[in-house]
Design goal:
Blueprint: H1 8-14, H2 17-23, E1 30-32, E2 35-38, E3 51-54, E4 59-62, E5 67-69, H3 71-78, H4 84-95, E6 106-107, E7 110-111, E8 120-128, H5 133-141, H6 145-148, E9 153-160, E10 166-175, E11 181-184, E12 189-192, E13 198-200, E14 203-210, H7 213-222, E15 228-232, H8 239-246, E16 251-256, H9 263-270, E17 276-279
Parallel strand pairs: 14-15, 14-16, 16-17
Antiparallel strand pairs: 1-2, 2-3, 3-4, 4-5, 6-7, 8-9, 9-10, 10-11, 11-12, 13-15
Helix pairs in contact: 3-4, 8-9
């Protein structure tokens, strides 16, 4: 009999990334407040901790691969041969989590797993880049300062946890089409609010598909003329949605760095007609 596994939303609510990492055999090299720093999670032979988990928001960022996201995004990065559905099934099996009828507190004498409470965050202010010296320094250190001007914003937000404690943060970011903000900073990168793709309208018959907004900015810096419509995934979980959107265009190009071409993305590219792949430098 096939087990009825939780959906992605339930996995995100019930399984902390730090707990999954512990089950996978990883211990934090250091803990700085709510940030847990790990070594050799997505890449081996690391000297310094590059993988960071924000325990409050239950999201992660890897400085070496420049990837980030929630627990499902981590599973896709950690098990590159699995698609999102297989990752959900694997995590469910890992923690023996399955759906139970609403309102039932015990099954076969076992307590129902309680969902982990994720703190509330609030975006306080949005400013153009150049107002905050730390954000500017971060963008300069990543070689992004020139291409960020006029495209990225400074996002100021705070988190209130279940004990009503408030902590303020800021980062560079851009807004996706669902109103959420994709942010990038020195110690954390992820999404605030609803995750979504970013669409920039252009030529109605041609489309370029990017995996990450930074790749798009690098391309735009070298291609200043108006041209095709742009669709940016922002997260691997939108591969199938991007594939459907791309099918409405006559010409489709895919601009991905080689290091980001995981199995799921490649599968989607193969379904795009014509599948023209442009590798970033």
């Amino acid at each position: 009999m096939k087990k009825n596994f939780l959906n992605a939303g339930s996995i995100k609510e019930q399984v902390p990334i730090c707990t999954l990492l512990k089950h996978l055999g990883y211990k934090p090299a250091k803990i700085n407040g709510v940030e847990h720093h790990y070594i050799n999670v997505l890449k081996s032979a690391e000297i310094k901790s590059a993988f960071v988990v924000n325990e409050q928001l239950n999201i992660w960022y890897d400085r070496l691969t420049k990837r980030s996201g929630n627990i499902i995004d981590f599973g896709i990065a950690y098990w590159p041969d699995l698609n999102s559905e297989q990752v959900i099934e694997k995590i469910s099996q890992f923690f023996q989590i399955s759906k139970r009828p609403t309102g039932i507190q015990k099954t076969n004498g076992q307590r129902k797993r309680l969902a982990v409470k994720i703190p509330f965050y609030h975006i306080e202010e949005i400013k153009p880049v150049g107002c905050n010296v730390e954000i500017t320094a971060y963008l300069q250190s990543q070689g992004l300062w020139e291409i960020s001007i006029g495209h990225l914003k400074e996002v100021y937000y705070y988190v209130v946890d279940e004990k009503r404690r408030r902590k303020e943060f800021f980062a560079a970011g851009w807004q996706n089409e669902n109103g959420g903000w994709e942010v990038r900073g020195k110690n954390f990168s992820g999404c605030l609010g609803h995750k979504g793709m970013t669409f920039i309208p252009g030529n109605e018959s041609s489309l370029i598909l990017f995996e990450d907004y930074i790749d798009y900015l690098s391309w735009k810096f070298a291609n200043k003329l108006l041209g095709p419509s742009i669709l940016i995934l922002n997260s691997p979980e939108f591969v199938e949605a991007a594939k459907k959107r791309a099918s409405k265009f006559h010409e489709v190009a895919v601009f991905f760095g080689k290091q980001h071409l995981n199995a799921e993305v490649l599968s989607a590219i193969q379904g795009i007609n014509p599948p023209k792949i442009i590798n970033s430098p």
